[in-house]
C-alpha cells in the first residue's frame, strides 16, 4: 500500500437544514482511500453513507450542506474549512470552485455509480449516446473515438453485441445490464476513484453476484480505487479491502476487512455480522438487528448506539466515544468507537449495565432476553 | 416496432372510432326535441308543405334507413348491394348533406368557416407555446427566486381569468379608448385584396390580418400560456431532481446542457399531452372568443346550427369536431412516441 492516500477525508460534516431541525447526516467522519483499493462504507439505511459519498464530490442536494471538514483528493482541497475573522467556519480560498469541481474532478477523476440502475439512465436518449457524451466531456477525444471507446467498454463489462446495443434505449436493457452500462460509464472516463453508492441493492442476488465478480475483475485490471457503499456485510466480505462502519452519521469502526470480520471491536459491527444469513441457518433463525435507528436529527446522548446496544453500560449514555485506534501493539491499525476497548479509560468495566429501552433493543436471538421488551423504558439507574 | 408502423397502426385504429362518432351523433341529433321543419316553415304551415319539405330532406323515411343512408354518405367509400354482377355498387366521396338553414351544402359551410378557426387557434397556440416554454424553464431554473415568483403569479392570474373578460377588457382599452386595434372581425392572410376594403395589395392584407389577430390571439392564448407555463415549470423541476440528471451532474455536464438537454426533453411529455388536449378543445371551444370579436368561425357556426335545429349542419359540425379530436389524439400519441422511445416500442415500463 502506498504511503499517501488517494483520498483523505477528515472530520467531514454535512447537515440538512429542514423545517423540523438540523439533521446531522454526516457528523465528522474521517477515513482514507488508498490507490487501488476498494474501501467499503457499510451501515443501515439512514446511517449517512450516501450523503457521505455525495459530499466527497460535493453533490449534496438542498437543503443539505457541507459545513465542516476536509476532503483532499491527490492533495487537492475538494473540501476545506477554516475559521474566519468572526470565528465562524467558512470554506477556504484554496477550496476548489464549483467550476473546477465540474471540469476537473467530477467524472474525470471521481466517477459515481448510483443505486438505482433503472432511474440512472435517461429514458429518452440511447444508451450509447449517453455513454459517448460523458466520455467526450471527460476525456480529450472526438465523437467517433468516444463512440469506439464506449463500444469497447460495453464489451468489457460483458454486454453481448455492443455495436447494436449501443443504439438501443435504456428500457431495452434489464436491470443487471443497465448496471453494467453504468459501470462501463464510470470506467470509460478513466477516473482514479469510483464511488459506488449501493449499486447492487436494486438487483436480485444472482445478478448482484455477477456484478460483484465483474467489478473485482475490472478493478484489478484498471487499478481504479473504489468506495463501495452498502448495507450488506456479505458484499463487503466479497469485494472490500478495508471497511468503514457507519452508524448515525459517525464512523464507529474502521479496519482491514479480515480484521473486522474475525475480530470486531464494536457491538454494532457484531450485530451487522450476526444478521448475515449463513448457509446452516433457516429463515426463522436469522438474526435481524432489532430496533430502528434513531433519527439523526436528535441523536441519543453519549454513544449513539447505546439505546440498541446489548453491551451498553451507564457510562455509555453519558460520554461520547471517539473513534480511536484499539489495535494491540504490532497489529494493523484498527479503529473503533466503543468503551469496551481498553484504549478507552472511562470506567466502562465498573459501570452498571444499562437496561434497554422497550422496542429498541436486540431480539431474543441476539441477547437471550425475551423479556427485554416487557421491561418498560428504564434509562440508566 | 418502429415509429412508422406505430403511426399506421394508430391511424387504422381510428376507423371504428369515427364510425362510432357518426352513429352517436346521428341518433343524438334525432333525439333533440323539436322539429326543424316546423322552425323552417314558421307558425301553422299547411300539411302539404310539411310533407313536401320532409320528403325533400328525406325525413319521411324510417330512422334506420336514414341512418344507413347517412353513413353511406359520410363514408369516403361505401358499397351498396346490387342485383346484377358484380352485385355491389361503389359510392365514393363525403357528403354531409345540405344545411336547412343556409340552403347550401354543409361541407361548403364548414370549408368556409374552418380556415378562420384554424388561423385563430394556430395563432393563439403559437403565442402560448413560444412564451410559455421559456418562461416555465426559466421559472424552474430560478426556483423560488424573484423570476420564479413573477412567472408563477402571472400564470396563476392567467389560468384564473375568464377569456371573454380578457377579450372585453382588451376591446375597451385598445379598441375603444386608445383606438389602435380593430375590435371585430378577422381577415384571412390569403384573402383577395379586391374584396377587402382599405387594402390594395398583399402587404396590406397581411398587415390587416396581423392587426386583427392580435387581440383574439391574446384572448384565446392567455389561458393556454398560463397552463403550459405551470406544467412546464413543474415538469422541469421534477426532471431536474431525477437520478439521470444527478448522474449527468456527477459526470461534469454543464448546468446549461443539463437544463437544455438532459432535463428538457423528457420534461416535454406532459407538455405534449396538455397541448394536444387543449388544442383539440380550442378548435371547438373558441366560441367565446369568436362571439366577443364577432369572428365567423366554426364556433359560431355550430351555435347557429343548434339554435335553428339544422339537423345536417349539427351532425356535420359534430362529426368535424369528432374528427378533430381523433386527429388531435393521434398527433399527440405520435409526438409522444417520437420523444419517448418507450411508447413506440410498446413495452411496459417497470
Ligand atoms: S460504547 Fe457502550 S453503548 Fe456504545 S457500542 Fe460500546 S458498549 Fe455499546
Describe this structure in words.
The complex is a heterodimer of chains A (381) and B (350). Chain A is an alpha/beta fold. Chain A has a domain at 7-247: P-loop containing nucleotide triphosphate hydrolases (Rossmann fold). Chain A contains twelve helices and 13 strands. Chain A has helices at residues 49-56, 98-105, 127-138, 143-156, 162-165, 175-188, 205-222, 233-239, 257-262, 267-274, 314-318, 364-367, and strands spanning 7-18, 21-33, 38-42, 64-73, 76-83, 89-91, 110-113, 193-197, 225-230, 242-247, 250-256, 324-325, 335-336. In chain A, β5 and β6 (89-91) form a beta hairpin. In chain A, α3 (127-138) crosses α4 (143-156) and α6 runs parallel beside α7. Chain B is an all-alpha fold and 350 residues long. Chain B has a domain at 113-339: MetI-like fold. Chain B is built from 16 helices and two strands. A two-stranded antiparallel ribbon of chain B has the order 1-2. In chain B, β1 and β2 form a beta hairpin. In chain B, α6 (106-141) packs antiparallel against α12 (264-285). The longest helix of chain B has 39 residues, at 202-240. The two termini of chain B are 19 Å apart. The mean pLDDT of chain B is 85. The chains are: A alpha/beta (381), B mainly alpha (350). The site of iron/sulfur cluster has 13 residues of chain A, from loops.
Task: Provide the fold topology.
The complex is a heterodimer of chains A (381) and B (350).
Chain A: E1 7-18, E2 21-33, E3 38-42, H1 49-56, E4 64-73, E5 76-83, E6 89-91, H2 98-105, E7 110-113, H3 127-138, H4 143-156, H5 162-165, H6 175-188, E8 193-197, H7 205-222, E9 225-230, H8 233-239, E10 242-247, E11 250-256, H9 257-262, H10 267-274, H11 314-318, E12 324-325, E13 335-336, H12 364-367
Parallel strand pairs in A: 3-9, 3-10, 7-8, 8-9
Antiparallel strand pairs in A: 1-2, 1-4, 4-5, 5-6, 10-11, 11-13, 12-13
Chain B: H1 3-12, H2 14-31, H3 36-41, H4 47-56, H5 63-74, E1 77-81, E2 88-92, H6 106-141, H7 146-160, H8 163-177, H9 202-240, H10 243-250, H11 255-262, H12 264-285, H13 287-292, H14 298-307, H15 311-339, H16 341-344
Helix pairs in contact in B: 1-15, 2-5, 2-15, 6-7, 6-9, 6-12, 7-9, 8-9, 9-12, 12-15, 14-15
Bound molecules: iron/sulfur cluster.
Amino acid at each position: 500500500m502506498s504511503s499517501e492516500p488517494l483520498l483523505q477525508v477528515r472530520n467531514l460534516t454535512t447537515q440538512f437544514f429542514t423545517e423540523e431541525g438540523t439533521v446531522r447526516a454526516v457528523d465528522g467522519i474521517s477515513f482514507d482511500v488508498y490507490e487501488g483499493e476498494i474501501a467499503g462504507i457499510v451501515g443501515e439505511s439512514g446511517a449517512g453513507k450516501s450523503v457521505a459519498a455525495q459530499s466527497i464530490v460535493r453533490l449534496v442536494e438542498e437543503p443539505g450542506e457541507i459545513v465542516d471538514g476536509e476532503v483532499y483528493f491527490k492533495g487537492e482541497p475538494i473540501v476545506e474549512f477554516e475559521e474566519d475573522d468572526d470565528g465562524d467556519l467558512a470554506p477556504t480560498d484554496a477550496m476548489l470552485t464549483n467550476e473546477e469541481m465540474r471540469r476537473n474532478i467530477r467524472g474525470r477523476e471521481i466517477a459515481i455509480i448510483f443505486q438505482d440502475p433503472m432511474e440512472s439512465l435517461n429514458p429518452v436518449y440511447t444508451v450509447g449516446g449517453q455513454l459517448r457524451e460523458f466520455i467526450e466531456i471527460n476525456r480529450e477525444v472526438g465523437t467517433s473515438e468516444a463512440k469506439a471507446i464506449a463500444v469497447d467498454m460495453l464489451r468489457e463489462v460483458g454486454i453481448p453485441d455492443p455495436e447494436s446495443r449501443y443504439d438501443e434505449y435504456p428500457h431495452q436493457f434489464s436491470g443487471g445490464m443497465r448496471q453494467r452500462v453504468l459501470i462501463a460509464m464510470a470506467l470509460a472516463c478513466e477516473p482514479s476513484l469510483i464511488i459506488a453508492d449501493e449499486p447492487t441493492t436494486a438487483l436480485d442476488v444472482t445478478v448482484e453476484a455477477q456484478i460483484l465478480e465483474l467489478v473485482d475483475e475490472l478493478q484489478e485490471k484498471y487499478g481504479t480505487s473504489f468506495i463501495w457503499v452498502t448495507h450488506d456485510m456479505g458484499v463487503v466480505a466479497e469485494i472490500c479491502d478495508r471497511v468503514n462502519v457507519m452508524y448515525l452519521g459517525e464512523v464507529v469502526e474502521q479496519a482491514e476487512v479480515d480484521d473486522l470480520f474475525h475480530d470486531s471491536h464494536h457491538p454494532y459491527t457484531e450485530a451487522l455480522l450476526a444478521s448475515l444469513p449463513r448457509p446452516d441457518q433457516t429463515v426463522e433463525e436469522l438474526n435481524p438487528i432489532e430496533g430502528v435507528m434513531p433519527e439523526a436529527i436528535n441523536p441519543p446522548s453519549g454513544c449513539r448506539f447505546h439505546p440498541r446496544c446489548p453491551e451498553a453500560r451507564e457510562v455509555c449514555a453519558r460520554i461520547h466515544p471517539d473513534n480511536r485506534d484499539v489495535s494491540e501493539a504490532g497489529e494493523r491499525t484498527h479503529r473503533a468507537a466503543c468503551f469496551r476497548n481498553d484504549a478507552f479509560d472511562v470506567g466502562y468495566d465498573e459501570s452498571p449495565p444499562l437496561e434497554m429501552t422497550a422496542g429498541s433493543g436486540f431480539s431474543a436471538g441476539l441477547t437471550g432476553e425475551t423479556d427485554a421488551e416487557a421491561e418498560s423504558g428504564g434509562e440508566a439507574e | 416496432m418502429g415509429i412508422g408502423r406505430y403511426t399506421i397502426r394508430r391511424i387504422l385504429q381510428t376507423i371504428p372510432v369515427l364510425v362510432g362518432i357518426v352513429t352517436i351523433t346521428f341518433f343524438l341529433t334525432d333525439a333533440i326535441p323539436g322539429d326543424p321543419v316546423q322552425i323552417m316553415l314558421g307558425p301553422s304551415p299547411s300539411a302539404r308543405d310539411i310533407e313536401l319539405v320532409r320528403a325533400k330532406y328525406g325525413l319521411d323515411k324510417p330512422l334506420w334507413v336514414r341512418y344507413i343512408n347517412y353513413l353511406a354518405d359520410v363514408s369516403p367509400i361505401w358499397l351498396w348491394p346490387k342485383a346484377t354482377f358484380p352485385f355491389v355498387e361503389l359510392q365514393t366521396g363525403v357528403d354531409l348533406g345540405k344545411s336547412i338553414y343556409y340552403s347550401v351544402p354543409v361541407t361548403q359551410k364548414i370549408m368556409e368557416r374552418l380556415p378562420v378557426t384554424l388561423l385563430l387557434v394556430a395563432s393563439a397556440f403559437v403565442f402560448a407555446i413560444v412564451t410559455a416554454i421559456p418562461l416555465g424553464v426559466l421559472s424552474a431554473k430560478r426556483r423560488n427566486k424573484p423570476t420564479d415568483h413573477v412567472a408563477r403569479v402571472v400564470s396563476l392570474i392567467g389560468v384564473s381569468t375568464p377569456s371573454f373578460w380578457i377579450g372585453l377588457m382588451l376591446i375597451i382599452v385598445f379598441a375603444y379608448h386608445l383606438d389602435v386595434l380593430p375590435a371585430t372581425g378577422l381577415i384571412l392572410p390569403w384573402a383577395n385584396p379586391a374584396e377587402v376594403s382599405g387594402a390594395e395589395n398583399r402587404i396590406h392584407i397581411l398587415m390587416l390580418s396581423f392587426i386583427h389577430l392580435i387581440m383574439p390571439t391574446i384572448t384565446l392564448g392567455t389561458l393556454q400560456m398560463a397552463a403550459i407555463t405551470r406544467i412546464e415549470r413543474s415538469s422541469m423541476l421534477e426532471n431536474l431532481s431525477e437520478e439521470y440528471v444527478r448522474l449527468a451532474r456527477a459526470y461534469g455536464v454543464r448546468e446549461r446542457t443539463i437544463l437544455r438537454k438532459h432535463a428538457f426533453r423528457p420534461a416535454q411529455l406532459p407538455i405534449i399531452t396538455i397541448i394536444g388536449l387543449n388544442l383539440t378543445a380550442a378548435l371547438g371551444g373558441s366560441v367565446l372568443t369568436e362571439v366577443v370579436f364577432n369572428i365567423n368561425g366554426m364556433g359560431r357556426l355550430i351555435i347557429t346550427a343548434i339554435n335553428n335545429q339544422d339537423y345536417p349542419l349539427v351532425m356535420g359540425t359534430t362529426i368535424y369536431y369528432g374528427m378533430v379530436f381523433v386527429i388531435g389524439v393521434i398527433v399527440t400519441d405520435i409526438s409522444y412516441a417520437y420523444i419517448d422511445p418507450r411508447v413506440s416500442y410498446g413495452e411496459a415500463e417497470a
